[in-house]
Structure formats: C-alpha cells, structure tokens
Fold each of these.
Amino acid sequence: MYVPILPGSAVEAARATAYLCGMVFSSRLIEEAVEAFSRLPGIGRKTALRLVLHLLKEAPDETHRLADAINRMRDEIHFCKICFNVSDAEVCSICSNPARRHDLICVVENIRDVMAIENTQQYTGVYHVLGGVISPLSGIGPDDLTIEPLVQRVAGGQVQEVIMAISPTVEGDTTLYYLSRKLSSYPVKLTTIARGIAFGGELEYADEMTLARSLTNRLPIESYLHTEALSPRPPQQSEETNELNTPER
C-alpha cells in the first residue's frame, strides 16, 4: 500500500494503518485475541499472533488454565492494607511475618522494587510501597502516593528507622526530600541506601549484590541531602565554545 509523505506523527499513523491492513485474519476470534495480546507492554502484533497460534495448538485444558490464572489474579489480588504490597489477603505475608523487623521500614516506589530487594536476601524489615514518585510534570503529587499512611505508621511510635530505597533520579530525590520533611518531627532514624546505585538509574534493574551493599551501607538522609546540594554540576558550554571544539570536516 502506498503511504503519502506526511509530517511527523501523521507518517507513523499512515504506516501503522498500512501494516494493519496488510495483516489478514481468517477468523474474527483470532483477530480479537491478537488485538488483546498486542495491548500488553513489549508485545507487537507479530508476537501477539505467534502467542495466539501457540495457544491454539495447546490442549484446551492448558489454555483454560492460563485464562483462569489471569482471571483469578485480576479478581482476587489484594493490596496489603499496611504496606500496599500485593497480597493474597488483606495483610501481606511480609507484614504478617513475626520474624521480620517491624521497627524497620524500607520505603520503595513500586512492587517491583520490593521483589528486587527481597531477591538480595539481606533485608529483614518490612516495606512501604509509595505507588510512584512525586513528578509534577506527570501530574503526580504527594496526595497521589501513599505518603500519609507512611506518616501514620511512623507516628505510631514503634518504628525506629525508615530506609528510603528510592531510585536516584530527579523525581526520586524530590520525593526523598519531601518525605524527610514530613518525617523530621518524629523520633525516627531516616536513612537512604548507599549510592552503589548510579544517579539516574532504576532500582529494579540493579543486580542483587549492588542492592545488598547499598542496604548494608545505608547513609543518614541528612548526609545524603547535604552531599547532593554540594555536588558540582558539569559546566554548560556556550555555543561559541562548542563551535571551537567541533572538528572541521
């Protein structure tokens, strides 16, 4: 199919239309299944088609078992009423475990971070899942996160230390600073994981050894904020300097 030359996103839309029109299905049910799979992150239409055809070749019991597992996960999953981690009950297995240190709370952005830290097998406390970080550009403010429930947990008087295991990004540091201000009036030790995690990196992609060392060598939050404030920023070059540094062709 011929796609006319159009500006910007119009070109992408035209190409997508041409591609979709080129994929012909002999069954409306197959097409609907491909459409459903292709909505998943990282799954294109070709991969979705391969998955659908694979399920079609499987025994009906296997396909029904997969569909039942997805339905049960979506309908029966809970979020822990204490830490907001995923759970099969109202209270997750970590918060209900008497062997965990309930006076030590590790604050993380999302559920994937809980899984990443648990894989290190070095942490014995409990968690608090914020559900994201403060990001004004994305329209996410403090009221959109589980910050108030965290403050209430600390105000209960049983917490001795709060570890800020938040990804070292601009938004993460903004959230860290906000939390430190909210919790500063309580007699609790505030620390953050050591910066074995590179600035700008995501916590979930760090390896287990780096995460384990970061938890072991955590820093007082005041020291971290002071260090960040004094960290020199790379100087911005002027256009004239850039022109001088550009090699001649």
Note: Confidence is low (pLDDT under 50) at residues 1-7, 13-18, 236-244.
Amino acid sequence: MQGLEYSLLERTAEGEVIPAQVALAWVSGRRAVTSMIIGARTLRQLEVNMAALDVQLSEDHRKRLDDVSEPQLSFPASVNRLASAMEFGGSTVDGRGHDVFPPLAGNPVRY
C-alpha cells in the first residue's frame, strides 16, 4: 500500500483515530476549504465525523498528505508553468521576478 491511503493509515497507527477522521482533519485544515459535506447516514457516522474536528495533524503529516495527493497533470499543464518565463523572460512585473525561458537562457540575443 502506498500513496494517500498509506499516509492516512500512518496517522491512525499513532492514535485513536480512523482514516476518515484524518482525511476530514486534513481537508478542513486546507487554506481554500471553507466548508465540508460529510454525508453521514447514521448518528454514529456523524459523531465520528464531528470528532475529526479534534484531530491534530503535524505540519509534516499535512505536507506528506499534500504531496501524495497532488495530481499529476499532463499537457498542457507542464507548458503552462513556463508561461510567465515565455511572456516576461527575465523581467520583473508588478514586483514579481520571472525566469528566462530555459531554451532561450543561453542565447545572448535579446529583443
């Protein structure tokens, strides 16, 4: 077992929590999340899910969960990451510096 499931189970071995509680604690602590839909069908499920509010995850564990859940995007995402280097090529725009597009970095010609 590896990936996200392993990281969730890793925290459950450290204490009295279940993977669903770790997952809910992780999601609720993410910066962009303002609410969660938990989908409990029974009172017991609701109680277990609400107990996730008391679960504390270390920054290291949060980072591992973030790392293993990051989607592997295909084309054009890899090229889009270079957009600012292609557009602004080594200049500073609005106080933010941009790298030179790698294929052009060794070329002394500037337009």
Note: The longest helix spans residues 59-69.
Amino acid sequence: MAECSQVIYVADGWITEAIANQAVEKGEAIDSEFSLILDALMSDAPAKGWAVLKAISQDRRVSAVDDVFGMGPLSSFILHHGMDFRKAIHEFWNMHQGFQEQYKMVVFCDLAEAIISPDNIAGNR
C-alpha cells in the first residue's frame, strides 16, 4: 500500500508543479522537486517510474500540461526504457485515448512509433 501512495504522491506533485511552472514569469525560479524525484524513479526503478507516468496520464488535471508531460518525462522514459516496457506501453496506449494524445508529443517519433506498432510487441513476431 505504501508503494501505491508513493506513486500517487509523486504523480500529484509532478502535476501540481508543472501547472504552477506554467504561470512562472520570466526570471522567477521554477520548481523542480517532483521532476527530479520522477527522473530518479525512472532511472533507478523504471517499473515504479512507469507506474507514476500512468498515474499522471490518467489524472484529469494533466490536460493543462499534456505537452510538458509528453515532451518531458514521457519522452525521457521512452528513450531510456521504451523497448523494455513496449508491451505495457502498447497495452496502456490501447486502453487510454488521453495517453494516445500525450504520446503524440513524444520527441523521439520514430522510436515512439516503433514501440506502439503491433509488429514490435513481444509475442507478435
């Protein structure tokens, strides 16, 4: 249960931080505490990082920062762990239209397309 609450805590913090950072005036400090936590999770515990990304993706508030999410942590995860998590990513992509829209903003287009292509999913070769 503690792991689930940590996922929700990081997801909620990241969204709150991203929304607040949109309102930052030029020259003001930008909060990055939860971005750093998420980066560390994606690096050190990719499965937990993926759980946080899914929680962020499904939160209704993320629509205000879909571009930040897609071009930021989602792109980073796809670059570093996309092929390892391709089946989970593909399944989540099929189940959630909001994630499909966020996924369009992933910076690494060729890699992103390869991951969701049914031909590249384990067991479909």
Note: Residues 121-125 have pLDDT under 50 and may be disordered.
Amino acid sequence: MNGSVKLISLLGPAHSAQAWEDFVRTRLATDIAGLTRLVFNEVLPVDVRGGGDPLPPYVAIIETWFSGRESADAFAANVREGGDCVQLYVNPLLINDRGTRPLPNKIMVTLMRRADLTREQAQHHWRTRHVEVGLVEHNAADFLQLYFQNHVFDSDQPRGSALDFDGMPEFWVDPADLAEVGAESPVMRAIADDELLFVDRTAIVTMMVAERELFVAPGAESGWPVCTTALEDALCAGKASEHSGGRAEARDFGRTGLPPRWAGKMCRSLVG
C-alpha cells in the first residue's frame, strides 16, 4: 500500500506503561524508518462510563503515522517482540472539531461490529447515521471538542476473533462536561440505542488516556491543527431543515485526517 499509514498499537499489561514508553523512546533513539509522528497514550485507571467496569486490559496505546505500509509493518513487528499487543491499521476520519485549544482529556474506545454485519456495513453506519444521531439530532457536538473515527482496514488479529476490532473512536472532552451530560441524558441514551444497530457492546473498552507526543519528523505537523469538518455544514443545514420538516438521507461525515500533512484548505490557524 502506498501513501500515509496510521498504526494503532494496544499494549498489554506484560509491562507497565512506563516500561512501554521507555521501550518506545529507545527505539526512537535508533531512528525508525518512515516514521512521521508518534503519540504515546498512557491508559489511566479511570472508570469512564461510571458503571463499575473493570480496568481496561491495556496499559498504553501507541499511535504512529508512517510514510508507507512497509515502514508501519516493520515497527509493528518490533512492538510485537516487546510484548503482548494488538496492532490495528486504520483510516482516521475527522468528524468534529470545535476549534478549542489546548485540548482537554482524551478518551479512546475499542469498537467491534455486530456478528451479523460486515466490517464495511458497520463502519458505514458509524460514520453516517451514528454521527447524525449524536451530533446533528442531539448535542454531542457541544461537548466533543475534537472527534476522530479510526476505521480499521487491517490488523494482526485473526478475522472474527475476540480482538478483531473494527474501529477506535478517539475524542477529547472536558471531565466537567462528561459528568454533566450523564449516561441517562437524552444524547447518551440516543447514542447507546443507535450503537445496538451496529456494535457488539460487550466488546467496548473505554479508556481515558494521557497523551504525549514523542516524535514529529522535520516538516511534519505537530499536535492537532484546527480543521473544518463536514459536520459544520450539516449542523447549519439541520437548522434550516427544522423549518421545512425535511430530512435528507444520512450523509457521510468522515473526512480523512492523516497527520502530518493536513489539507491546508480545510485547516484554519489558531492565530487571529
């Protein structure tokens, strides 16, 4: 595969988060071919959903961006030698960006499709109707300050296995907003109800993480630049349709979001 590739590595508890970070820093010191950006996410001991869920089975998550698949494969193999992990090759789609920086707490979630759906069917519902339910028909756009959907297109797990995830949403949200919304709010109930249409909820793992950007290649984009999204147009169109009573067919809200080189016409500067 040619072109930029994003790899997500879910790291098991065979080592501590600090030991995994030390492992990554050691690798960075030896130069990783094709690497353009690396973000290390330490999983925090927080019950995000507030339902007494057990602690996540992962201690850290590495997000890496490479210039090509061959370089990503080489890094994935090296991480696998370091210990138990799950490697996901993903297409990151930018869904919502409120334009606020610095960003608050970051949450990452594992998603697996319902057994009666294909990966393509589940991912299509996720980036269309599910976004519409949560962010257009309800007010999730008010508290999701930045929201990406990472759509899995390959992994190191056997197809159909317990760890054959189909996606990983990641979003940044203020803890105060999260507490205020609550699981029983209309928006959260609507999101949960829609999840039943495409997600195996027993496979969901929700993790609050502390992210640290450990590497950015010269000339590459650092951090998370502010970008416009298809959602902004949809929200404006939704307000207009309230008066007409019409509802268009569910639209695709995904916009490819591959650092480090973002499409300049989509991004706006934080200055001015």
Note: The mean pLDDT is 87.
